[in-house]
Amino acid sequence: MSLPLRLLRRPAAPAASVATLFATALLAVALLAVALLGTAVAPASADGSKQVVMRFETVQTYVMYNADEGARASNDGFVVPVYVDASKGGEPARNVRVVVDASGLEGVARLGDKDMCTADGPVYTCEYGNLQNGDGESYTPLSLLGVDGVEPGDSGTVTYTATADNAPTITGTTRMTVGGPTLSAPGQEKDVSGLAPGKSANVTARLANNTRFPTKQGVALQVNVSEGVTLTALHSNCFYAGPAPTSAWCTFPTKAAAGAAYRTSAPLVYTVTPPGKLSGEVTYTWSSPASRPADHTVRGTGSPLTLVRTAAQDFDDSHGRLGITTTVQADYRPVTATVRGRVGDTVKVRLGLEDLGPGRIQGDEETGRFEVVPPEGTTVTSIPYTFEGDSAKWACERPEKPGGAFVCRIGYDGFYEARHEGGMTTIDFHIRIDRQVPGAKGTIRTYNPFDRTPGNDIAVIPLDASPAPSYRRFFGHPWAWTAGALAIVLLAAVHRRRRRTAKAS
């Protein structure tokens, strides 16, 4: 072997030097093994490779209920979200468990159990299971019930801890406060109709403090508008969500007195945006204390909005609401067809409507209907449809009296598969042709609250009936059935006579 031979040719080293070299080699091998082992099992650095890291996304402060509600209050909305930070190639967090300690709420809230978590007194244990890399889960561990005798601002602290088999333990806290007082709004305001796209209108927000508590920290107003409507960023004490805002948050230092009512010193301006929706809505709510939403970052540039005291109001709603109807229309036109066939036939006739726009009816708006009166000499035997895999016979309401209209409400389940956004909604009528009626015509009529072109709402359903085939005409007469029955009796008698003759011979 060449290696031993080369070693033998080298000058012999002193014994101590050989031992030192051997020890050094062993140390190097050991260090390499430790390094490799450390690479396999140690947590990755925070630069994001494979370490499993959890985090809470709970709020720092949570209003449990308003002081004036007292023991009547109930709140099931407090959630404890846990997320796993996304990392390239990272593993899920395994067997995640969250322990929520609500003992700090004694005196400011009563605790109710939830089915999601196991309760041991004020401590709730929630099994979140495995949470995937970059994913999360959220549980509502407990119900919060009110307590009589509390004051606005009374508070306690809830603590929570999340553990996992393969991730560091994390902890968090939320300050749970008693809010109040409850500020009321008038509910339904006067609706606005005929508002054209690009045109503006306004609403003056009103509030009432019908409780025994004044607002110690002022009040806040939140205004929201539906899609297709925007707010005008006018006031410097209001923050708006984006440059074309659909929400505003305004704060007022006014301490609303117990039993007092107020209105804003100027109206809030909103505009229907082109091309515009068929309808819209403006809503507003009041609260105290104020906490501005994080996405309301655009501050108004005009003079501040203030509150003006008014006569006491018996408001008992949590919102102010007003509806908007625009000048945009959704024009419906009937889709019709001819009832064509022979007397005695049952034929399929596809009837319905076409949405010509330009506006489109949304899911929360009245979608309208069409009504069908079949031609004289015919009978509608069914209008079948399928919903969630089940078949049914009548998609439309049948008339109470002969000659009445079948009412087809296209927002109903019967038209779920037939309804197409911005297109046609048609369905098969199964119609039996009972007899020929020269010139007979049925009608189909469309309706919806946004159709302002009535001239094309009605169409005819012609009847084109041919005579029944001769065999159908023959067998259709009562005497034909009588003759047939007599013939069968005669044939049977002849057959029996022949059998008797055959046996006798």
Cα-atom radius of gyration: 40 Å
Assign the structural class, choosing from mainly alpha, mainly beta, alpha/beta, alpha+beta, or little secondary structure.
mainly beta
Query: Helicity level, as a percent range?
Result: 10-25%
- Helical segment count: 4
Mean pLDDT: 86
Distance between the termini: 122 Å
| Quantity of strands, as a count | 37
Low-confidence stretches: 1-49
Largest sheet data: 8 strands, mixed
Beta-strand percentage range = 35-45%
Chain oligomer state: single chain
Query: What would you call the shape?
Result: extended
In short:
The protein has 505 residues and is mainly beta. Strands 13, 14, 17, 19, 20, 23, 24 and 26 form an 8-stranded mixed β-sheet that branches. Strands 2-12-11-5-8-7 form a 6-stranded mixed β-sheet, with no helix packed on it. The protein has a 5-stranded mixed β-sheet with strand order 28-37-36-30-34, with no helix packed on it.
